[in-house]
Amino acid sequence: MEKVDLTRLVDGPFELPLDRAAFAEALRKGLGRALMHVRARGAAGVDALVIDACVDDKTLDSQSEPERWPWMTEIVDAAGMWALTAPAIINMVESLTELNERDQDHVCNIAAVLAKRGFSDAMRALYMAFDRSWRWDDPIAATQAIKLNARDGLLHVARRLGQLAQADQSDDLELAPLWILALEFESKGDAERILEEAASSDRDIRAYLAWWRATQRRNSQDAMPQSAETRDGLLRSITATEIIERMRTGNPVLWGGPLMAWAKIASDAALQQIADAIFAETDEKRLRQYLWAFRHRGLPSLTPEFLAYADHENEFLRNATLIALSNTRHPLVREFAMRRMAREDKSFRDLSLLCRNHERDDHVMIEAMLEVAGDVHDAHDLVYSLIRIFKENPVGEAQPSLVFAYEHSPCMNCRKKVVGLLLGQGLAPAWLAEECRFDANEEIRELVLGSG
Ligand SMILES: [Zn+2]
């Protein structure tokens, strides 16, 4: 692992033009400097990297992070390289397979922009990708075909789905619901009207509409809506004694999620009862289950013996213990954190133990731990711990650590949290605020605009 020069980092970690490695890194993380580079210098020498990032979604977690494709199209626009990127994008759309599941929306959205820029091959490729979809509950390129061609795209997609509905009459057939197809229209009603009109003379579209209505009827029969209020009411009525009894007998089973929700609103006395049960428990499986109660709340008391679970051979128990301790303010946790951070095999997760046990001048020790992590998951753990520590303990000395987190966050959601903390505490260096205006995360751009 690589140590970092924090002074240099706070002063400004980059200069334009970026070298190839710095550009690749910025593209991966979605840092504004990549777009700044292309706006100032074009993409000469880094065009292959840009093409690669068009066909390969670089976000760490495309489920939870904002979509990356709008930023990539800004970069391609700024570089004026649509013609250069077109063959790779079209080729990728044409050859998508299940192996590219995580890239498909990314590249199809960029292909849709390409089509809008006048590359008709991109449109053909999108239709082709749709026709050979490997799943139909969320078909490849369907929304993009509809986005580009509104009515014609919608009819094309609905016709194909209608053919499938005729071929498979079973109740559990899963096709794209009408509301997905209607996303690009003003309202679901608009899309439905277009389909109804077409249905009078098109049996495939008629079949799709019939499938959709039958599915809706079935779903409304199955649905059992439960408001947050009734759920909280139910949870509130359960006592700690009942929970301990259910945990002991396993009847009925108490799942982690409900227990976590129960603990969020439980009284201190009830939580103490659960903590006492944990301290008396020796069964590994039950311990793991119990600890769900302390994913968001701290332990009201602590025993030295409990700390040992942080080194348990079972990974779930180990992690659940560290999370519970990271929520707990207690001298034992502070002492434990110090001991662990002095160890040879310390981990970035240990830092999280300081969240509720932070003291003056801890930044010195924290800064000494900052290293460029070997893999993105370690990097994410580190950044996440830094965010938690300095969110709970806003101090001016947090600046180098937070700038480090900004620079090294592999995820755009965490970067947004870091930028929020830096701006909120008046600690954002000028270069950083400037760079945020070009970030791949639109919400980060809005943060700096709102603060400026
Ligand atoms: Zn994150």
Describe the structure in your own words.
This protein is an all-alpha fold and 452 residues long. Helix content is 63%, strand content 1%. The chain has helices at 6-11, 20-29, 32-41, 47-55, 69-79, 82-94, 104-116, 120-131, 142-167, 178-181, 188-199, 203-222, 228-236, 240-249, 256-265, 268-280, 284-290, 304-307, 315-326, 331-341, 362-369, 376-392, 399-408, 412-424, 430-436, 442-451, and strands at residues 2-3, 371-372. Helix 3 (32-41) packs parallel to helix 5 (69-79) and helix 24 runs parallel beside helix 26 (442-451). It binds zinc ion. Zinc ion is lined by residues 380, 411, 413-414.
Biggest sheet details = 2 strands, antiparallel
Count of strand segments: 2
Number of domains: 2
Strand pairing plus helix content: what structural class?
Answer: mainly alpha
Oligomeric state of the chains in view = single chain
Portion of residues within helices: 55-70%
Bound molecule types: zinc ion
Q: Helix and strand succession?
A: EHHHHHHHHHHHHHHHHHHHHHEHHHHH
- In the predicted model, the low-confidence regions spanning at least 5 consecutive residues are none
CATH architecture of the largest domain: Alpha Horseshoe
Q: What's the overall geometry?
A: flat
Which whole number gives the mean pLDDT? Answer: 92
How many helices?
26
